[in-house]
Recover the amino acids of this structure.
C-alpha cells in the first residue's frame, strides 16, 4: 500500500546520510559520475530543470553550479531543509526558482510544459507503487515538448547482485532463507513488502524492459537505458582498492563510461537509468 507519510517520515529521519550517499566511497562516486554523464547533454546555463525527489540536493547543487534554473521538489521537509542549507552555503540560491514540498504523484502546483529537463534520480519512483504511472505522467506533463525526462530507479536484478558484493554480510543466510527475505516475491513481481529488518518503506524494484514500457506509455520516445555502476556493479571492495591507483581508477572509469549504456548490461546495475524525449 502506497503510504506517503511513511516515506516522508523515513527521509526526515534519514537526514544528512542522504547527502553522503553519493560521495562516501569510490563505488558511490562511480554512481554519481555516471548519473552526471547521463545528464550532461540536457543541462546548461539558463535551462529550466526540475529536480524531482531531490533529497539533500546532491544534483540540485551541481545544476545550480552549472547555472541552470533549478526547482527542487521532495516529499521530505528535512531533505529540502538540508538541500537549501547546502545551496546557501555555496552561494547558489540565485539559481533556484523554487523549493517545493509535495508528492510526485501530484505536481498540480506546476504548469504544463514548464521545464527543459526533468530529473528524478536516486530511486524516488521505487516508492510510488500503484501511483508510479501517475507520477511519471506528471513528470512528462511539466516537461516542455522536446524536453528530456531522466530517471534512475533501483533495479531488481542489480539489487540482488549487490547483496553478493556486500562485505560483513552473511550471504548464505540471506539466500538460505528466501521466503523470510521475500526473495521469490521480489524475483517474480519486483515488490519488496515492509520487512522487520529493512528500514525502508515498501518498494518496487524495476526491470529495464518494464521501465522502458512505463516511460513510453507515459509519452516519452527515443528511450535510452543505462546501468549504474555497470561493469563494477556489486564489486565494492575491488572498486575501493582500484581507486587508490590513479591509472587503474581512470581505466575503470573509462570502461564504465563505455559500457553503462549498453542495453544488455542495463539490468546489471544497482541503479537503472532511463531517459526519453517528450513528444513534440
Ligand atoms: C534516495 S533519495 C535521492 C535524492 C536525490 N535525487 C539523489 O539522487 O541524490 C530519494 C528521495 O526521494 C524522495 N521521495 C520518495 N518518494 C517521494 C514522493 N512520493 N514524492 C516526492 N519525493 C519522494 C525522498 O524523500 C528522498 O529525498
Amino acid at each position: 500500500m502506497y503510504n506517503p507519510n511513511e516515506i516522508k517520515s523515513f527521509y526526515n529521519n534519514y537526514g544528512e546520510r542522504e547527502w553522503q550517499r553519493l560521495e562516501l566511497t569510490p563505488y558511490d562516486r562511480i554512481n554519481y559520475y555516471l548519473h552526471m554523464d547521463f545528464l550532461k547533454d540536457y543541462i546548461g546555463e539558463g535551462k529550466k530543470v526540475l529536480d524531482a525527489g531531490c533529497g539533500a540536493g546532491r544534483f540540485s547543487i551541481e545544476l545550480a553550479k552549472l547555472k541552470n534554473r533549478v526547482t527542487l521538489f521532495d516529499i521530505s521537509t528535512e531533505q529540502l531543509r538540508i538541500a537549501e542549507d547546502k545551496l546557501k552555503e555555496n552561494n547558489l540560491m540565485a539559481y533556484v526558482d523554487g523549493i517545493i514540498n509535495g508528492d510526485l504523484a501530484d505536481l498540480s502546483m506546476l504548469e504544463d510544459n514548464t521545464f527543459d529537463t526533468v530529473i528524478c534520480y536516486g530511486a524516488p519512483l521505487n516508492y510510488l507503487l500503484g501511483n508510479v504511472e501517475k507520477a511519471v505522467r506528471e513528470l512528462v506533463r511539466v516537461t516542455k515538448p522536446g524536453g528530456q525526462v531522466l530517471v534512475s530507479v533501483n533495479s531488481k536484478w542489480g539489487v540482488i547482485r549487490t547483496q553478493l558484493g556486500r562485505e560483513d554480510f552473511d550471504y548464505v543466510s540471506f539466500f538460505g532463507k528466501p521466503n523470510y527475505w521475500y526473495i521469490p516475491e521480489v524475483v517474480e513481481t519486483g515488490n519488496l513488502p515492509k520487512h522487520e529488518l529493512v528500514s525502508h518503506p515498501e518498494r518496487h524494484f524495476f526491470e529495464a524492459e518494464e521501465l522502458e514500457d512505463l516511460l513510453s506509455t507515459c509519452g516519452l520516445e527515443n528511450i535510452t537505458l543505462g546501468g549504474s555502476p555497470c561493469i563494477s556493479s556489486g564489486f565494492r571492495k575491488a572498486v575501493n582498492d582500484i581507486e587508490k591507483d590513479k591509472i587503474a581508477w581512470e581505466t575503470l572509469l573509462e570502461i564504465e563510461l563505455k559500457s553503462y549504456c549498453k542495453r544488455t548490461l542495463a539490468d546489471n546495475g544497482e541503479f537503472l537509468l532511463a531517459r526519453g524525449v517528450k513528444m513534440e
